[in-house]
Amino acid sequence: RQRQMCIRDSINRFREGKADNAMADFLYSSMLSIARNIDAQNNRGREISRNMTSLLGYIQQLETIYPSTPSQTDDRLEELMAAMAR
Question: At what angle are helices 2-15 and 22-43 packed, to 10 degrees?
Fold first, then answer.
């Protein structure tokens, strides 16, 4: 549940001021699903690297939908990855 909350908060901050986009909405939903899977796997002591790789892929896809400057991209990616590591 912890990662779900972190991802939900990160998504909400990322969405601020951005135009609605159906593909982005799908990616947000997928990211929340992956966060739930990561929480469940962690609770069972299982490995999460595949889900983390999928999450990173979704983040990168969002960056193609909403391009930003390199430093903004790095900051957002770092924030999301730090939230998932908690």
Answer: 160
Q: What is the largest CA-CA distance in the chain?
A: 39
Q: Distance between CA 9 and CA 14 in Å, rounded?
A: 9
Residue 11 contacts residue 83 (beta carbons within 8 Å): no
Spatial CB neighbours of 73, under 8 Å, sequence gap ≥ 6? 63
Condensed to tens digits (0 to 9), the pLDDT of residues 16-55 reads: 889 999 999 999 999 999 999 999 998 899 999 999 899 9
Name, in order, each residue with C-beta under 8 angstroms of 4's C-beta and a sequence gap of 6 or more.
Answer: 32, 35, 36, 39
Alpha-carbon distance 5 to 47, whole Å?
20
